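User: quick one
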Amino acid sequence: MASVTTLAAVGQVGKGFIHERTSETLPCQATNKLFCWDWAKENIDRYGTPTLQHLELVGLAVLFGFTIAFTLAVLAYRRRWLRSPLLAATGVLYTIPSVAFFFLLLPLTGRGVDTAVIALTAFNLQVIYRNTIIGLSNVPASVKEAARGIGQTDRQILWRVELPLATREIIAGLRIATVSTVAIATLAVFAGGGGLGAPILQGGIDFKTNIIIAGGIAILMALAFDLILLTIQRLATPWERAART
Amino acid sequence: MPSEKLPEPKSSAGASPVRYAGATKRYPGSAKAAVEDLTLEVPAGEICVLVGPSGCGKTTAMRMVNRTVEMTEGDILIGEQSVRERNPAQLRREIGYVIQQIGLFPHRTIAENIAAVPQLLGWKKERAAARSAELLALVGLDPDLANRYPAQLSGGQQQRVGVARALAADPLVMLMDEPFGAIDPINRERLQNEFLRLQAEIGKTVLFVTHDIDEAIKMGDRIAIMREGGKVAQYATPAELLMDPADEFVEDFVGADRALKRLALMRVGDIDLWKAPLAQVGQATAEVRAELEGAEVPYPLLVDGKRRPLGWLSERDLAGEQVPQRPDSPLGPLLDRDDVMRDALADLLQGEAQYAAVVDHEGRIDGVLSVEIISEFLSSPKAKIEEQSATERPHG
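Assistant: Done. Structure below.
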């Protein structure tokens, strides 16, 4: 199977990633302890490019995912009949395993960042779409009625009342989408999209230190994104804190 | 009496009459009209209450005015202009709208909520902010609340903000859909009184929907009692409604306690009070006794130098030469000329008192009210005339 051979092939190359800097094998490297500090010190800079690639993948996928899902949600919120079909469609995209999606796309878009971003974007849609719809639906009917009654147009109600009041749920969706994308983007390497999956695959999955560094960066990245989005949500919804005091 | 001056609404547009001309609302798939051929005129500056059982179409009738419900036939005119000719959103900005669930914007501060319509109308920031502050004061809220969020206010405070928001752009007409329905009884009464006081100042044309006949009688200059299908069973002043119900439906709706309700419409000062013989501390009791002869009230009332009542004198008090410092019987209920008669009766009954002293604004004795006066009043044909003159006065 293609994936197995690819894996094996990259694995072979990977030996170089681990060994190419030091001519001799470091002691802790040989014993493959849980974490080899000496190797880490010497090689940490080599994770820079994969990290930036990873950021790019996640950033683009979330940006596109949000733009598309948000637009669809607003559309479906106005036209109720669209809701279920769109939920089903985004649901299908969400369920397709990412690796399978990459290989499905390869004949169409070739190897590279594009393919990875398309698959990751498709994966994102469901959560953002659903949360946006939920957020909009949770806006109290009395507030919408008052908005209409004082003379706001539908567009004004959407932008000035409904969307601000849905901020919490929308950003909650965005947080889930972002964190899962950070994790799943490690598979982008199979689509030739690089990212933190590259050192994992190239370095061989049997060298623990490598896995821990690459995985650790991904975890930190997920936490950082989550924290940033949480902060944005807090700043964007000052009334929610006020209500609790 | 020159009451403290409330801020005049700037650039007051005044009020417009509202005329329903055969307004009809039919919902598709429903055989019966929700509102059928409604014709009704609400004079400018009056409160018209639409009241009736649930499902009678009163809310639908009200909402056709600002086109949050579109009528299917007929017309509604505000002043001379048909609402059908207007752009709905623009029309609504000229009509104050207050709903039971209040519907304040949770994500906007109180000041921003009040300034919502001015903002839509494109007022300058400073002007809208000034107007917010003015209205906050007008509805009796602390100016410090301006920067709070709705969730930080009590239900009563929130509804005051709701009223302020409706008044912000000085609308020609106000629509109020059970505005005080979700407020607890004590605060509801306070809000009703405040609104009547406010209305006496601003004189808007108000359409007020309620299912509570007592509220209708209290708030309305005119009441339209509606029955299913949005038909008006009777459109009259509260007094007319209570005296001459048009039919059995109205009679039932108004209730068996009509007589008591009439008392809610008048004030203590509207009735002929009895005169009590007055006595002052140190006065010779013989003099007091002489006054008791043939008096309407068989007990003398002790008053101070400024004719403010202190208490009732008993036989024992009159046994001595002079009127004593401390009267034997306490004063009991003390009423003001402006008290609502129904409350006065309640005070009398609650205090188990036969008589209650009535004072004017300065606290000076004005007369005496007794249960007997009230019952005589209710059974006399004169009641009708007096009552009407009582309700024709402006509220407050």
